[in-house]
Design a protein that fits this description.
With 163 residues, the protein is α+β, with helices and mostly antiparallel strands. It contains four helices and eight strands; from the N terminus they run H-E-H-E-H-H-E-E-E-E-E-E. It has two domains: 94 residues, 2-Layer Sandwich (Nucleotidyltransferase, domain 5); 56 residues, no CATH class.
Length: 163
């Protein structure tokens, strides 16, 4: 209830709320405190179908990601420390973490080019007539310096192509 009220205070009252059929959300013998709170704010309660995991699949996957990529890797001094660090991690996850693989292939100036995004980096592979392996330029979204590095050469270039 505390998280629900905090979310309403921060983001406003939603029109609908989707939950599973956990006993904290619904009860066949009466009305839960959660349902009373929804009714008070005129929020439509949508309950997922039992034994139908696809309805809540995205949030279930998000919880698994939090567990594997954050909670299993970090130790906290206090509950407040955990809360603060989780808020920072969620901000990172929502705004910096790549959510879908990106891959694009084409030709540019007579050369084959492949661009892909993965793990906070944008990589561009260009066929090179002088080098069978070609050149791969890497732009790391997490670095402040943001210089590209060639994996097959020693020169460094910035995004504008200047050395």
């Amino acid at each position: 209830m505390e998280v629900f009220r905090t979310a309403i205070g921060e983001y406003g009252v939603p029109k609908e709320m989707l939950t599973d059929n956990g006993r904290q959300y619904t009860n066949w013998r009466g009305t839960t405190n959660f349902e009373k709170e929804l009714k008070k704010d005129h929020i439509k309660h949508i309950k997922s179908r039992p034994h139908h995991p696809m309805t809540l699949g995205k949030i279930e996957r998000f919880w698994k990601t939090i567990l594997n990529e954050f909670l299993f890797l970090v130790h906290f001094d206090s509950f407040e420390n955990a809360r603060e660090r989780l808020a920072l991690w969620v901000k990172y996850y929502n705004y910096k973490h790549p959510h879908q693989p990106f891959y694009m292939v084409g030709r540019l100036g007579g050369q084959n080019v492949a661009i892909r995004a993965e793990k906070g980096k944008i990589k561009m592979h260009v066929d090179d007539s002088e080098n069978i392996e070609g050149k791969e330029l890497v732009y790391d979204l997490n670095l402040e310096d943001n210089n590209e590095r060639e994996s097959t050469g020693t020169r460094k270039k910035n995004l504008a192509g200047n050395e």
